[in-house]
Amino acid sequence: MREKDLICGLSGTVLGAVAQAFGGWDTSLATLLVFMALDYLTGLVAAGIFHKSNKTKSGALESNASFKGLCRKGAILVLVLIGARLDLLLGVHYVRDSVCIAFLLSEGISILENVCLMGVVPPQILRKALALLQEQENRQDDPK
Q1: pTM of the predicted model, to two decimals?
Q2: CB within 8 A of 115, min separation 6: which ones?
Q3: What is the pLDDT of residue 137?
Q4: Residue 143 has what pLDDT?
Q5: For residues 144 and 131, what is the distance between their CA atoms, to the nearest angstrom?
Q6: Contacts with 23 (C-beta within 8 Å, 6 or more apart), sequence order
Q7: Rounded distance, CA 73 to CA 85, Å?
Q8: How far apart are CA 132 and CA 32, in angstroms?
Q9: What DSSP string runs through 3-59?
Q10: C-alpha span between 133 and 114 (Å, rounded)
Q11: What phi-psi label fits residue 51: left (phi over 0), alpha (psi between -120 and 50 degrees) or beta?
Q12: Residue 101 and residue 136 in contact, taking contact as beta carbons nearer than 8 Å
């Protein structure tokens, strides 16, 4: 039981420190991570099962394209981290959230594209929700 407690304690400490570095664990960060995971998974399904990827010539799954996708996700997280640090430096609370929203839009659109490649027509409400998110981002990018 002691090893389990030690592992749980260390895991919680490390994950808490990582979340704090990203500006704290909140809805925008959690949603971005969910969207990133869903985008990656739907991209794998579109390429691996349906062979309709727009990232490869054959449309099939390729490890190089998959690795590039993971690298892009890592770069997104670097930009979120930069946004969190800028918030601290400037004493504000909107830079990181704006970065999260911008990438939420990108990931959401990519998820819809992947689902369409699978032959599923997404409901109009999802497109409208992404449009609302775009409007919110535009308002945050232009503080008056």
Answers
A1: 0.86
A2: 42, 122
A3: 75
A4: 58
A5: 21
A6: 29, 80, 83, 84, 87, 96
A7: 19
A8: 16
A9: HHHHHHHHHHHHHHHHHHHTT-S-HHHHHHHHHHHHHHHHHHHHHHTS---SSSSSS
A10: 19
A11: left
A12: yes
The per-residue pLDDT for 144 is 56
Residues in the chain with pLDDT values less than 70: 1, 141, 143-144
What's the rounded Cα separation, in Å, for the pair 21 and 85?
8
For residue 127, the model assigns a pLDDT of 84
User: What pLDDT is attached to residue 133?
Assistant: 81
* Lookup: tokens for 143: 């503080």
d(CA 65, CA 14): 30
Checking 52-61 for CB contacts under 8 A at 24+ apart, the result is 52/117, 52/118, 53/117, 54/113, 54/117
Please report where in the chains the tokens 């890592």 appear, as a residue: 74
For residue 75, the model assigns a pLDDT of: 98
